[in-house]
Amino acid sequence: MDPAYSAKSFYTRLLHVSNWQSLPVTQAAQAVQQSATPEAYAKWEPFAHQLVATVGGGATDCAGGKEDGAGETITAPVQLPSGFSLPAGTPVSIVTAVSYGIQKLGMPYQWGGTGNPSYDCSGLMMMAYDAAGVTISRTTYTQVLDGTPVYNASDLKPGDLIFAAGSDGTPTNPGHIGMYLGTNLVLDAPRTGKDIQITRFDDGYWN
Fold it and tell me: Given CB 3.0 to 4.6 Å as the disulfide criterion, which of 30, 74, 150, 160 pairs with 38?
């Protein structure tokens, strides 16, 4: 139940597997784990590759493939900020939600969208957390009531939802939402005509 211990034990054993660098990931995992159901590893391999690329700052033009939703289209190349990573100890649910959201970078905003074919701001947040097994409500107006409020920008953590009045809301009844990624970065599905992007959150103001 200790991820750090489990990971260290796995990689220590992996180093003793002959030619592990050239093996398919599933075979290398089986050589270490000696599972009774070795085929079970295969279904997680694409997600594992994406997760490592995302938290390691190496994911570019991430969206694509059958798991990304029908009809979605990247309209511009996507490059994550150099050195982007999530802090050690970030909960798995947050890593999953952030990873899901980052896969959608470069896709066009669609009002009312929840992935078919694209997303609006609250639809992206809802589906990102749904992928992590966390249920939040559908609209910005109700998502502001989900979870525990954070009142100081200095207390924000990756995965926190941040709110702005937007064109159809007020500070107390916000009309726009994004996901804080850390280091003053925000995952944002801005508006019609704009692509899902990473923007900055400086001095408590979302730019």
Answer: 30
Phi, psi of 117 (to 5 degrees): -95, -10
Domain count, the chain: 2
Contact 196, 121 (CB under 8 A): no
CA atoms within 13 A on the CB side of 196: 35
Q: Is 55 found in the same domain as 25?
A: no
Strand order in the sheet with 176-182: 161-164, 176-182, 185-188, 197-202, 205-206
Q: Tell me the β-bridge partners of 178.
A: 162, 188
Decide if 96 is inside a domain. Answer: yes
Q: Which domain holds residue 84?
A: 49-206
This prediction has a pTM of 0.66
Q: Is residue 134 one of the residues assigned to a domain?
A: yes
Kind and range of the H or E run holding 54 = helix 45-55
Under DSSP, the state recorded for 95 is H
Low-confidence ranges of the chain (pLDDT < 70): 46-47, 49-72, 77, 203-207
Give the list of residues 6+ apart from residue 160 with CB closer than 8 angstroms, or none.
Answer: 150, 179, 180
Residue type, 158: P
Q: Which amino acid type is present at position 36?
A: A
Task: Pull the structure tokens for residue 170.
Answer: 């007020």
